[in-house]
Design a protein that fits this description.
mainly beta, globular, 36 strands, 32% strand, 6-stranded antiparallel beta sheet, 6-stranded mixed beta sheet
């Protein structure tokens, strides 16, 4: 890492008027891969910025954990039944909220992570899908300073209005509203709607306007896997046996979906000659929240077996049929356990498994859909078992950027299949460079390998900072000033000291760019003789995005932004932008007053001369409260209000830690 030198700061003030600026999360962007979304519940103690998740402590006093978790699942499924989306439940492996990773499909947690932490001025916060938020996108965070009430909304019953006390905050109503936000549905001014921007009374049934909003984003619910209607035995979809299948080791799979409560799917299989038994499954766990019934019917029309999902938490069905020689062709019928419930729709996998009980017991993960996301955590399966394919710079895999509107972002899941395995990936800088290149890699799994990360140029020379290891095992390399149109190569390998030499990992690379929805907050000039201070008030607890840019004729100049709590002096965020570059940073900031300090610094041994700075900001989470009057309706309200005055420099320099320069996760 290059040494950074700061200039001598003297008390200074800068006062300027700001026009009205709004703090608005971005709505209206649909999630990519909307049929493969998942929910997860991190444990208490998982980091949320400077706070820790305390969801279980908050809600376990209201009801048994499966009961309140089911309310959260029901909230999402209430939206899913009305749109072409699919949401399943998966395990969460307790990485910090916002940890670098894949925005969609990260194997360590769901797109929608449910948590809680103390917040001021609101009931809950949520973050819709937006590239600027990284893996914070989709998070739903209750205010653990608040109190909620538990009511059972199964079959839309809800609480008896006569039992609603003043100040009652029905948990399901809050979750339903916030789930809509995380799916991209904006708040409205219709007080009968679930998406009315303030919490008023319990609302557990979507209004017509709510349904219109979700279908406008994702379309009407459909069944993309059913090309021809298979609603009867006579029109059953054939599940063929693949040529070359080894029935002792391989499983036949076919994807299906129930698109309405009354939908029924039929499938036909021709049992393999010589096999005495077959196990058939409807696997919905990790895929959807569907609760299905499975029936097996023989060629004589007799039902020879049936099974039903036990709950939304155990929603797989499995039947083993013996004596195949006497059954003829077999038909599988898939329907909903309760056609009137929201869990009557969802995607699933049909699995036809001829393996013996012994083989299945020794290799249980093989039966999971697509080997299942959780298989990446058990070391049963490698995501990519290659060895020797992209082990040289010349054989680097050319990554394709994901669809993000403002940045060139690359994501990859892969594996190191031996302690000596090396993987190279190529990313190409855009023609116009506006920000840093930030690369992260993290091993995944219960017994994950410790992976090493390096970024090199086309000649194999290392570029950027030395890799920084974070407490959760993530390695980060930052190229502060990447060159336009240049190829960069990401090298992933196993740490020689790692106790585990084989396993899976997630790597993410991004060429940052300023975000279009950001609001200009402050700008000015800095020299070695003066720092600039701004006193700024955050009206509510929110996730804030700050984009700091620096401009100078000298490429070795930079600007450091330090955000202090105005009353406790605690540092909340530090960000550094080099000349010609914009650096983005995310921070959960509580309601209250802050001091923003801008300092001119230099890189290496260069003298601090002069540098200009500009700061843009936005609140990218959306809150729900119960205030009838929103201060943002006041034409004179400025959520970015700040003033500055003559500050005692020593007040902000009481400890050297205040000037500790560090690389964080790149946000």
């Amino acid at each position: 890492m290059k040494r950074v030198t700061r200039g001598r700061a003297v008390p200074a003030a800068s006062i300027q008027a700001l026009e009205d600026r709004r703090l608005l999360a971005v709505f209206g962007d649909a999630w990519s891969s909307p049929r493969d979304l998942t929910i997860s519940f991190p444990d208490d103690g998982v980091q949320i910025g400077s706070h820790q998740n305390d969801l279980n402590a908050l809600l376990d006093v209201l009801a048994d954990r499966p009961q309140w978790q089911e309310l959260a699942l029901r909230a999402y499924q209430t939206w899913a039944v009305n749109a072409d989306i699919n949401i399943g439940l998966r395990n969460d492996y307790n990485n910090a909220f916002g940890t670098p990773g894949m925005i969609v499909g990260d194997p360590r947690f769901g797109e929608f992570r449910i948590g809680a932490f103390p917040q001021e001025g609101l009931v809950a916060n949520s973050i819709p899908f937006q590239a600027v938020a990284g893996t914070y996108s989709g998070d739903l965070l209750l205010n653990s300073n608040d109190q909620f009430t538990f009511h059972d909304w199964a079959n839309d019953h809800g609480p008896d209005p006569m039992t609603i006390a003043a100040g009652d905050r029905d948990l399901f109503s809050v979750l339903l509203h916030e789930a809509g936000n995380t799916l991209g549905v904006d708040d409205n001014l219709l007080d009968w709607s679930v998406m009315f921007r303030q919490y008023t009374v319990p609302k557990g049934v979507l209004a017509a306007e709510d349904i219109d909003a979700i279908t406008a984003l994702y379309g009407q619910r459909s069944d993309p896997y059913e090309q021809i209607d298979n609603g009867s035995l006579y029109t059953a979809s054939m599940i063929p046996t693949p040529v070359g299948l080894d029935p002792q080791t391989q499983v036949i799979r076919s994807r299906g979906s129930l698109s309405t409560g009354d939908d029924v799917d039929h499938y036909k299989i021709n049992p393999i000659a010589g096999m005495d038994s077959v196990t058939v499954r409807v696997r919905a766990s990790g895929v959807s929240l569907l609760q299905s019934r499975l029936e097996v019917i023989n060629s004589f029309g007799h039902v020879v077996g049936q099974a039903s999902a036990a709950s939304v938490f155990e929603n797989d069905n499995e039947l083993t049929i013996h004596g195949l020689a006497y059954q003829g062709d077999l038909f599988l019928r898939v329907s909903a356990v309760d056609p009137s419930d929201v869990y009557a729709v969802g995607d699933y996998w049909i699995e036809v498994d001829y393996r013996s009980d012994t083989v299945r017991a020794a290799d249980p993960v093989l039966g999971a859909y697509d080997s299942g996301p959780d298989s990446l955590f058990t070391n049963f399966d490698l995501n990519d078992p290659e060895f020797g394919f992209n082990d040289e710079l010349a054989d680097a895999v050319d990554l394709v950027p994901t669809a993000t509107p403002q940045a060139m972002r690359y994501e990859v899941q892969s594996s190191v299949s031996a302690a000596s395995d090396v993987d190279y990936y190529k990313v190409t800088a855009p023609d116009l460079i506006q920000g840093r290149l930030v690369v992260h890699v993290s091993g995944v799994g219960v017994g994950r390998p410790d992976v090493r990360l390096q970024v090199v140029d086309a000649g194999g020379q290392a570029v950027g900072t030395a890799a920084k290891l974070h407490p959760d095992g993530t390695f980060t390399v930052e190229v502060a000033q990447p060159q336009a149109s240049q190829d960069y190569f990401v090298k992933v390998s196993v740490d020689p000291n790692s106790a585990v030499g084989v396993g899976n990992y997630v790597a993410v690379a991004e060429f940052e760019a300023p975000q279009t929805q950001m609001n200009d907050l402050a700008s000015g000039d800095l020299t070695s003789e003066s720092d600039k201070f701004i006193r700024w008030t955050a009206g509510k607890t929110r996730l804030y995005r700050f984009d700091l840019s620096a401009t100078s004729a000298d490429a070795d100049q930079a600007v450091r932004l330090t955000v202090y709590d105005a009353h406790t002096r605690e540092i909340k965020m530090v960000s550094v932008a080099h000349a010609g570059i914009t650096r983005g940073a995310l921070a959960w900031l509580e309601q209250g007053e802050y001091i923003l300090r801008f300092t001119a610094i230099s890189i290496g041994d260069a003298a601090v001369t002069q540098v200009s700075y500009a700061l843009a900001a936005d609140g990218i989470s959306d809150d729900q409260d119960d205030d009838w009057v929103d201060p943002a309706d006041d034409p004179y309200y400025d959520p970015y209000y700040y003033n500055s005055g003559e500050y005692d420099e020593g007040y902000y320099e009481s400890g050297s830690d205040y000037y500790y320069y560090y690389y964080d996760y790149g946000y």
